[in-house]
UniProtKB/TrEMBL annotation, chains A, B:
Molecular function GO terms recorded: isomerase activity
Ranges where the Xylose isomerase-like TIM barrel domain occurs: 43-283
Keywords assigned: Isomerase
Pfam families: AP_endonuc_2
Biological source species: Methylobacterium nodulans (strain LMG 21967 / CNCM I-2342 / ORS 2060)
This protein's name: Xylose isomerase domain protein TIM barrel
Amino acid sequence: MHILSIQNCRVIMSPQNIRPLTLDRCSINTATLGHHSPIERVIDLVARHGFGAIAPWRRDLSGHDVTTVSRQIRDAGLAVSGLCRSTYFPAATRQDFLANVEDNRRALDDAAVLGAPCFVLVVGTTPAGHKGLDLARAQVLEGLSLLLDHARHVGVALAIEPLHPMYAGDRSCVASLSEALAMCDTLDPEGRGGVATAIDAYHVWWDWKLADGIAEAGRKGRIAAFHVCDWLVPTKDLLLDRGMMGEGVIDLSAMRALIEAAGYDGFVEVEIFSNHWWNQPEQHVLEACGRSLQLI
Amino acid sequence: MHILSIQNCRVIMSPQNIRPLTLDRCSINTATLGHHSPIERVIDLVARHGFGAIAPWRRDLSGHDVTTVSRQIRDAGLAVSGLCRSTYFPAATRQDFLANVEDNRRALDDAAVLGAPCFVLVVGTTPAGHKGLDLARAQVLEGLSLLLDHARHVGVALAIEPLHPMYAGDRSCVASLSEALAMCDTLDPEGRGGVATAIDAYHVWWDWKLADGIAEAGRKGRIAAFHVCDWLVPTKDLLLDRGMMGEGVIDLSAMRALIEAAGYDGFVEVEIFSNHWWNQPEQHVLEACGRSLQLI
């Protein structure tokens, strides 16, 4: 019999002749190193290992002058691939919701100072005492709509990161790329920009419509970031058991090919939450990242 | 400002006047009791607590004559809501794949003897040594196509259960209701039946397109089973930390309303994998199920 395939499901094939990935096109998200060292040291380490960019977390900037950090990053020869991450939008009270929005507005300013092309949004989810995701989704949309003009003004895209559905209960009501893209359509129907998606392989690899979603995102100019790590089998912890690229079952080469075919030419950013890797020396982690990236 | 909602996203509202759920319309999946007791005792317990049906696992039937068990279930006044679950289809070799298919063919016969309306399929995923999900999806489709005539012949629906995407690496390449429904369309384009879906709240609650999926499944007569438990916040284990209905964040009343509005009039089946509940006396678990079901 002939091979069956699901109707309307674009099969993702590992590419034969994808352009090799060089480290100058890669970025290190500072979460990958476990937030052990001060940002100055992390900038230096990332630059010395040959990566082209860095993606700091806001906690790494706490107590620092952002303009100074921005200059340190440039002086090290690095670009910034994004600023992580938003304060969750949903809240049980209107006052708390608006405070969350304002917190994210200030973060957009910091992202602009850093020269980040995007501010990565982990949007949050259902406030305590509620069930389902409708309320959270409505609050997230309203929060984004309150920030969109400012994002455009400072030139930093709001990058909605759909999280893996296992985080729908505590971290993100946006659980698939198609949902993030629908939010972009709602907020920016004319395609003026200012809102996009951050596509993390770990969060979306399972989706049978992934190829379609990436193609749509590219067509509409809505891929602001591409994050990689790997899905381990077995996965022992919902948050802190992500793998180094190549250790797991995600076909990262195929996904990179889709992302690049969709027109994305930004950095490939490594973001690994892992008790295992966070217990390794930072140099060792960066060397592993470098080796692994060249295989995808 | 007016309340925003995602374009094309049907908002799921908790219903005001859904018909109360009585236990005669509910089923206990034997996994809920942790497989501690022999099936005869479980049948007796489930019947004595007032439930209308039971869903045995194949491991509960091991070493038993299925015809005898079927009679014991009828004699206790219970129906069978489904037989759990399939042997995984995907395999690294053709021989192993075909052996998996034949194993599932025999299980369909057992399901028929039990009077089960469906055989619940946890389809399996990528064989060792492979990446991505395309190969697994193709094998699952072929396996189902090899079984469909037999399923129709014995009058037991192949019920594809989309599993939560956190199981895509080790249990099921079918990770969303839309994917399961697309497989049904591929296998049964004319709607002759024999293949359907098993919708488990735990696996699909996060999906922004859930309402559309349930409506489509109902319209096409492809809801073979409806399973319930709850998503705990925090969830501490990927497999064995599911909650009793009401303990978590799923809006089960809203989901039941959608399922019933879609035309499903089968049993509401409780299936809870939980170290906590498996350590409770079986009577205690069944009483908690009974109380909790009446609240959804």
